[in-house]
């Protein structure tokens, strides 16, 4: 709300009054009404303030959405496909669940053993043996489980966060002590070369999807939020002899233009590996007719932005309906079951058929 006031006060000085006035009349009522503990009165006040704010800005604030041109867009088919973990993934997944930290997390809501009547996380079991609180462990281990669900080899990669890297190393020491063959293979070859689908249920399904797309001569955009996972997908494409292009945050601007042009115009290039955050920045992949979200972000808006930047793109400034796309667009989303409930709660689920892993 503060950013909204700043923008509008710069564009139309004085429209929303002073910052103090805006905070009292609009910002505070709206924010209070959006709290999960808001009373009915606060909800009503917040909605009323939102309507007044929308009316006040209506003459100056224009909103244009894709619903205005939905009749010009080609038909889009959304699918959600559930795929199980491989046997190796299941064992690793279960091993992570049996670690001391995860056991502490899973039991944190139970009554404390000291008979105080309080929950364990608020009493005698606030921290683990290393002094880390249960709250700090939640997201860390959820990230670990997400990596296992995506591809076991991701646990062997270096993390950008020192704290996360320490945690991953500790988990690996506990988990992979039971899998010496896997550890040895990791040492003998770089982790990126471990693109064998047996380490990932998603990879098995992806293999079938790409084979199907090759037969139909579809052009595929393969999105992944994790660039480490993008490395694995790249090695898989190389091992399978697929002609592909890759675009992520490290790709230079002039190289991006070249990649997009080659993908759109060259018939032999049927796959483009794209980082989700880099793919949502005005790239016109007008040649694609299949989108696969292999590794979604915690914020589904990032995925939708990447999709929409492709879906709503134009060619040579022409209207969207003149872009030579096939009549049917196939969109496949690959997610893990730990993330799916969060995505569902953050947006109305538009994907009727999506790929997800579950143990």
Question: What is the CATH superfamily label of the largest domain?
Answer: P-loop containing nucleotide triphosphate hydrolases
What count of structural domains?
3
Mean pLDDT equals: 75
Cα separation of the termini: 41 Å
Family: Belongs to the SNF2/RAD54 helicase family.
Keywords: ATP-binding, Helicase, Hydrolase, Nucleotide-binding
Organism: Prolemur simus (Greater bamboo lemur)
Pfam family, one: SNF2-rel_dom
Summarize the structure.
It comes from Prolemur simus (Greater bamboo lemur). The protein contains 14 helices and eight strands. It has 359 residues and is of the alpha/beta class.
What does the model show?
With 359 residues, the protein is an alpha/beta fold. The chain folds into three domains: 2-57, no CATH class; 72-84 and 200-358, P-loop containing nucleotide triphosphate hydrolases (Rossmann fold), CATH 3.40.50; 87-191, no CATH class. The protein is built from 14 helices and eight strands. The chain has helices spanning 2-11, 19-33, 40-57, 87-97, 100-106, 134-150, 162-175, 180-188, 201-216, 227-239, 253-265, 276-279, 300-311, 340-346; strands at 75-80, 82-84, 220-224, 244-247, 271-275, 290-295, 328-336, 355-358. Strands 1, 2, 3, 4, 5, 6, 7 and 8 form an eight-stranded parallel beta sheet that branches. Helix 2 packs across helix 3 (40-57), helix 4 runs antiparallel to helix 6 and helix 5 crosses helix 6. The longest helix is centred in the first third of the chain and has 18 residues, at 40-57. The protein starts with a helix and ends with a strand. The model is unreliable at 314-339 and 342-359 (pLDDT under 50).
């Amino acid at each position: 709300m503060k950013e909204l006031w700043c923008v509008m006060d710069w564009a139309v000085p004085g429209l929303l009054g002073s910052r103090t006035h805006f905070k009292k009349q609009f910002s505070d009522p709206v924010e209070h009404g959006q709290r999960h503990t808001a009373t009915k009165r606060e909800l009503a006040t917040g909605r009323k303030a939102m309507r007044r704010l929308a009316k006040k800005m209506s003459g100056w604030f224009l909103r244009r959405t894709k619903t205005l041109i939905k009749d010009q867009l080609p038909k889009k088919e959304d699918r959600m496909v559930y795929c199980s973990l491989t046997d190796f993934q299941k064992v690793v997944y279960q091993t992570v669940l049996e670690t001391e930290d995860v056991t502490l997390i899973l039991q944190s809501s139970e009554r404390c053993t000291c008979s105080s009547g309080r929950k364990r996380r608020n009493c005698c079991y606030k921290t683990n043996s290393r002094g880390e609180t249960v709250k700090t462990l939640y997201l860390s281990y959820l990230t670990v489980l997400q990596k296992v669900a995506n591809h076991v080899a991701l646990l062997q990669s270096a993390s950008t966060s020192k704290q996360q890297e320490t945690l991953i190393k500790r988990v690996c020491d506990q988990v992979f002590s039971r899998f010496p063959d896997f550890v040895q293979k990791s040492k003998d070859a770089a982790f990126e070369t471990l693109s064998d689908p047996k380490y990932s249920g998603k990879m098995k399904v992806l293999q079938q999807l790409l084979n199907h797309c090759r037969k139909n001569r579809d052009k595929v955009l393969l999105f992944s939020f994790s660039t480490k996972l993008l490395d694995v997908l790249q090695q898989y494409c190389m091992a399978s002899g697929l002609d592909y292009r890759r675009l992520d945050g490290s790709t230079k601007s002039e190289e991006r233009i070249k990649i997009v042009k080659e993908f759109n115009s060259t018939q032999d290039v049927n796959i483009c590996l794209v980082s989700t955050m880099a793919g949502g920045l005005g790239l016109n992949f007008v040649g694609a007719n299949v989108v696969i979200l292999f590794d979604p972000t915690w914020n589904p808006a990032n995925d939708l932005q990447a999709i929409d930047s492709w879906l709503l793109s134009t060619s040579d400034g022409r209207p969207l309906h003149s872009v030579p796309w096939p009549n049917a667009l196939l969109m496949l989303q690959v997610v893990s079951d730990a993330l799916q409930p969060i995505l569902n709660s953050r947006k109305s689920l538009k994907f009727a058929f999506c790929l997800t892993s579950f143990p």
